[in-house]
Amino acid sequence: MQPPTAKVPFCGHATIALGAALALKHGDGIFPLVLNQTAITVEAWRSGELISVAA
């Protein structure tokens, strides 16, 4: 197996999971993130037991 040759700007699945964790801890909101020197936002909101996240 070859080692990685480059970094991706961010991992989408992990970013969405982080948005869900932020919503659980802090409630609904838009959370600014800096990932590998790239500024993005993650929006997360709860509806009952359902957590929705968009990046």
Walkthrough of the structure:
With 55 residues, this protein is of the alpha+beta class. Helices cover 27% and strands 40% of the residues. It has a domain at 28-55. A three-stranded antiparallel β-sheet has the order 1-2-3, with helices on one face. A hairpin with a 2-residue loop joins β2 and β3. The protein is elongated and about 45 Å long.
Q: For the report, how would you describe the main beta sheet?
A: 3 strands, antiparallel
The count of helical stretches stands at 1
Strand residue percentage: 35-45%
**Which bin fits the share of residues in helices?**
25-40%
Number of beta strands: 3
Low-confidence stretches: none
Q: What are the salient characteristics of this protein?
A:
55 residues; 3-stranded antiparallel sheet; 1 helix
Topology:
Blueprint: H1 12-26, E1 29-35, E2 38-47, E3 50-54
Antiparallel strand pairs: 1-2, 2-3
Would you kindly provide a brief summary of this structure?
By secondary structure, this protein is of the alpha+beta class. The chain has a domain at 28-55.
